[in-house]
Description:
Blueprint: E1 10-12, H1 13-20, H2 24-32, E2 39-41, E3 43-47, H3 48-57, E4 61-62, E5 69-70
Antiparallel strand pairs: 1-3, 2-3, 4-5
Helix pairs in contact: 1-2
Amino acid sequence: QAYRYRPPIVYTVPELATLLHTTNTTVRSLIKCGHIRAMKLGEIKVSQQEVERFLNESVNVDYTADGIDKL
């Protein structure tokens, strides 16, 4: 049977940072501020569903700097 790629069910902070093309620090900040909901299973992890929710709700939102601004 041919190998079929399946995305992870959960992402670690470094995996999510790579996926979002940002830094671990930014991902941790988004989690700390409550923009991304995470769980601790040995280390911090974010579910695929949460990533999809965050991306869908983040269209035209700028999370850089100190605040959240609409683009």
